[in-house]
UniProtKB/TrEMBL annotation:
Its EC number is 1.3.1.76. Residues 119-146 form the Siroheme synthase central domain. It comes from Lysinibacillus piscis. It holds the Pfam family Sirohm_synth_M. The lineage of its organism: Bacteria, Bacillati, Bacillota, Bacilli, Bacillales. It catalyses: precorrin-2 + NAD(+) = sirohydrochlorin + NADH + 2 H(+). This is precorrin-2 dehydrogenase. Keywords: NAD, Oxidoreductase, Porphyrin biosynthesis. The gene is cysG. InterPro entries: Met8-like (IPR028161), NAD(P)-bd_dom_sf (IPR036291), SirC_C (IPR042518), Sirohaem_synthase_central (IPR028281), Sirohaem_synthase_N (IPR006367).
């Protein structure tokens, strides 16, 4: 079994080419959309679910069969047609520096995609290394419930608070203690209950070095 190496790629303004426009392509487009990648779909036909993204110009559709030049400048390539020969041709045409995913042949892929839950900057990913995509999906659903929408706001608060604390205290024990104190469970609870004043008061106290 392959031991995959998990990393978070910065795809902003980089080109990702998906060859094929079916159900798998739609799933891959959905996971690429939160990034600022330039998403290009190469396919004679596309599934209905892709149409709104094309109309909104969130992705570019080239209505054509695959040719090697379609891969020019792509950093990420996903071969997701229902024709093994075409997926093979995509892999063959790729340069050594381009990362290729084969929807029909995991063992030939340079990377595979995890199931992902996003809560603002918090990104939770699950992979079974392909052993059971259905289990990855199930664990994702459990995580989505545990780390619910409140985390969006909670993480934004933590991010702002961290900036204020690092601006106020130099590196060292006091800064570390303040950052640690930000993780008190009550901060999450106050966020959940909309008790923003409580949260703010706690932060102000930390910034004054009161509880440290
Ligand atoms: C996580 C998720 C993200 C995504 O798709 O982006 C994802 N599959 C999801 C769901 C899912 N996929 C399948 C089922 C039906 C149940 C089943 O078959 O078990 C379900 C469950 C469902 O839909 O409920 C069918 C399936 N999947 C693969 C094969 C081919 C094979 O096994 O060879 C077949 C059989 C095809 C066939 O024969 O018909 C392969 C892959 N699927 C992967 C990712 C990669 C490994 C992930 C890992 O386990 O780490 C890999 C290698 C693709 C890659 O990335 O290269 C997404 C979660 C959606 C979400 O986020 O909610
Ligand atoms: N990785 C996964 O999670 C997963 C899940 C299910 C299936 N699969 C594999 O992925 C493949 C695709 O599945 P799907 O459900 O998206 O199929 P699909 O039939 O919905 O879509 C196939 C797409 O490929 C396009 N296509 C065909 N020939 C082409 C060419 N020459 N150039 C460009 N595009 C071309 C078609 O127009 C269509 O849009 C399956 O054959 C299967 O092997 C993978």
């Amino acid at each position: 079994m392959t031991n995959y190496f998990p990393i978070h790629l910065n795809l902003d303004y980089k080109k990702a080419v998906i060859v094929g426009g079916g159900h798998v392509a739609l799933q891959k487009v959905a996971s690429l959309l939160p990034t600022k990648a330039q998403i290009v779909v190469i396919s004679p036909e596309v599934t209905e679910g892709l149409q709104p993204f094309i109309t909104a110009q969130q992705i570019t559709w080239h209505k054509k069969a695959f040719e090697p030049s379609d891969l020019d400048d792509a950093i990420l390539i996903i071969a997701a047609t229902n024709d093994t020969a075409v997926n093979e041709a995509v892999q063959e045409a790729a340069q050594h520096w381009q990362l290729v995913n084969r929807a029909d042949q995991q063992s030939e892929s340079d990377f595979i995609m995890p199931a992902t839950v996003r809560r603002g900057p918090l990104v939770l990913t699950v992979s079974t290394s392909g052993a059971s995509p259905a289990l990855a999906r199930k664990i994702k659903a459990e995580l989505a419930e545990q780390f619910d929408d409140v985390y969006d706001d909670y993480i934004s608060f933590l991010q702002q608070a961290r900036l204020m604390i690092t601006a106020k205290f130099d590196k060292g024990a006091q800064r570390r203690a303040a950052l640690q104190a930000l993780l008190a469970p009550s901060l999450l609870e106050w966020t959940r209950n909309g008790e923003i004043e409580q949260r703010e008061a706690y932060l102000q106290q930390l910034l004054m070095g009161d509880t440290l």
